[in-house]
Structure prediction request, 248 residues.
Amino acid sequence: MDDLIKKTAKKLVLAKNVAALTGAGISVESNIPPFRGPGGIWEKIDPMQYAHIDAFIKDPVKVWDVLLKNMKEIIDLAKPNDAHLGLARLEKLGILKTIITQNVDQLHQKAGNTDVIEFHGNFAWQRCMKCNNRFETRKVDLTKLPPQCECGEIYRPECVFFGEMIPPDDIERSEQVALECDIMLVIGTSAVVQPAAHIPVLAKRSGATIIEINPERTPLTKNISDWIIIGQAGRIMNNIIAELEAFL
Ligand code: NAD
Ligand code: ZN
Prediction:
């Protein structure tokens, strides 16, 4: 693994245009559980019952009670971990340009990254379903659910539910980033949710080196990734940054 970390650091120093694709795994060390895998939210609840837009429209109080309340409590307390901070450091060093994330926790922005494409929106804001008025999620009063706008309609989180479209502009920009980057770091994503999982495939086809960081192998590992560094993202990013700073 030390060899792969050295190799990654060297490659990053020489690269001209680095992008990262991140998933729920990068926030696990910030105590936000992922959806899939051990300890994942899907072990406890059925996504179609609670994370589908139809479920939210049919019974917003139920969706708040079972999924969103818990997400709010966890995300309110979460702080960027070493993996988020490492990516912010890479941007400061002029190495990393853009992060494409599937996460809704805004920890990349909190860590200091300035160009973050949020494929699935974010959970930091609620938007009125009628007048588009916005309200900060951290200010939602959990004793009166669902949160309601002054106009009388309910608020919904600004994230993309199952059954909803990813904003076409975000897809288009991500594809552009994939085509232009010479390295794509793929961190903490199970790479099974489309269209995000397709982004590294595009990058690979246009000649980028794909480097995965994940405790588990994924569907990308065998044919798309150039290599995978197996393990937790925080410690691996710390080691990469330490190696890389020694090269500068
Ligand atoms: P996922 O839940 O499907 O998979 C998580 C991946 O992270 C797995 O491959 C797992 O092996 C890996 N992982 C676990 N611990 C890790 C660690 N310490 N370091 C690095 N990797 C680790 O996540 P996904 O692929 O992002 O897709 C699921 C969807 O879940 C996303 O669309 C996202 O919107 C949503 N989600 C977001 C959050 C968040 O905002 N933090 C949390 C849960 C789910
Ligand atoms: Zn309103």
Remarks:
- The pocket of zinc ion (ligand 2) is lined by residues 128, 130-131, 133, 149, 151, 153 (CB under 6 Å).
- The CA atoms of residues 121 and 159 lie 4 Å apart.
- The longest strand covers residues 121-128.
